Description:
- The protein is an alpha+beta fold.
- The chain has one domain.
- Helix content is 43%, strand content 17%.
- It has 4 helices and 6 strands; from the N terminus they run H-H-E-H-E-E-E-E-E-H.
- Strands 1, 2, 3, 4, 5 and 6 form a 6-stranded mixed β-sheet that branches.
- The longest helix is centred in the first third of the chain and has 64 residues.
- It is rod-shaped.
Amino acid sequence: MATSYPAPRRQRQDGIALLTALILMLAVLMTGIASTRGALQGARAAAHERDRLLALQMADAALLDAERDIEGGAEPGSARANAIAGGSADAFVAGCGGGRPYQGLCALAADPDQVPALLAGDDGPALAFGSVTGAMLPEGEGALPIEAPRYLIELMPESPEGRLYRIVARGAGSLPGTHAALQAYYRKPPGGLPGRRVGWRELGDWSETVAAAGATATTGEGRR
């Protein structure tokens, strides 16, 4: 007499094992996707932070260039150097509109937001790095900034300690839309002695300020 086996029960066991294996494979796949997504987000965040630091470094380079400008730049005896040293009203005018050779020099603005707005515009009066000092910075693609940093110099009220200048500098990263700005004070003592930086800070939300300035300029062009 032939022996019979419970085939239906074995098939059910095989089916349960296959389903379990599929569930485990799906769980492993979802875990891998989540890990990959997290790694990509971390890489993007790291790249953004690296680009922000590059923009900050460029802004700091512009601060140093502005300080050299105050000290006379490449031509200490030029009309610009004499006007900066003497606090000339012809050089430091409202809206930074003194024209050549006084580009980038501003009278103290009544509105604190006026100077950052002037600095944010690509076609504004801000002076590009090296324009007065002759210094150069690499720019281009990859890990280089996409544009040269810029700065403005405001003349503060004079005191017995000498002339005080407020510098606002803007730097760009290697990616479009990444900008940073720094503000510093530079005091020039009497008697032609070298000056020194007496304080600085980062201007927050600068990328948003640049974006808002660009939107305003676009809106203005559309109305013409």
